[in-house]
Design a protein that fits this description.
heterodimer; A: mainly beta; six-stranded mixed sheet; B: mainly beta; seven-stranded mixed sheet; four-stranded antiparallel sheet; 11 strands; globular
Amino acid sequence: DQQVKQNSPSLSVQEGRISILNCDYTNSMFDYFLWYKKYPAEGPTFLISISSIKDKNEDGRFTVFLNKSAKHLSLHIVPSQPGDSAVYFCAALERSLGSSNTGKLIFGQGTTLQVKP
Amino acid sequence: DTGVSQDPRHKITKRGQNVTFRCDPISEHNRLYWYRQTLGQGPEFLTYFQNEAQLEKSRLLSDRFSAERPKGSFSTLEIQRTEQGDSAMYLCASSLDGLGRSYGYTFGSGTRLTVV
C-alpha cells in the first residue's frame, strides 16, 4: 500500500521556466512533509520541508505548497536551472504520539526532472 | 566531519553468501537509520537506532538481516544467505533526535549490492 505517491515518473522543462513536481498522500496522520533531491551515485539530499499546519514554505527558488484537504503537495522550482536535473523524492513523517518521533520517513517513488538548457 | 560515510560503495556477491555493510554517521548525531532503495522506487525504511538501541525494525527486515550499533557510533548491516531479491542500494542516514522532520536527515552515498 503506497502511502506517498508521485504519479509522474519524469518531467522535462526548459531552463528558466517553472518546474512543478507533485505528490499525493493517503495518511492523515502525516505531520511533516519533506522533499529530497538525488543525483546518480549519491544519497538523497534534503531540500525543503513543510509542517502540516502550514500551506506554504519558501526557500529561495524552491517553494512547497500543501493542500491538506486534497492530501496533495507540490514543489515549485523557479526559475529552473540545468543543475536542478535530478530525481526528486517526496517524503512524509508520521505524527508522533509522545514528545519525540521516530523520524521514520515514508518516501514516494520519485520524479526525474530534466531541465534543458 | 565529512558527513555520513558508507563502506563499501559497491558489493557484488554470489547468492547464498553473507555480506556486511558499514555506516559511519555524523559524529554528534544520536540517531541512525537504514533504508533500502530498489530501481524505480523511493527509499524504504528498514530500521533505526537511537544511540546503541535498535528501536524499530520494518517487516521488510527478514531474519536474514541484522543490524547493530554497538557503541552508539558506527553501525553494521549484515545480510545472511543473500538472495537475488536483496539486490538494491542500501542507504544509511543520521540525525540529531527527531530533527528529521524539519531539517531532513543526512544520507550517505549508499552501498549498491548486486547478488548474482
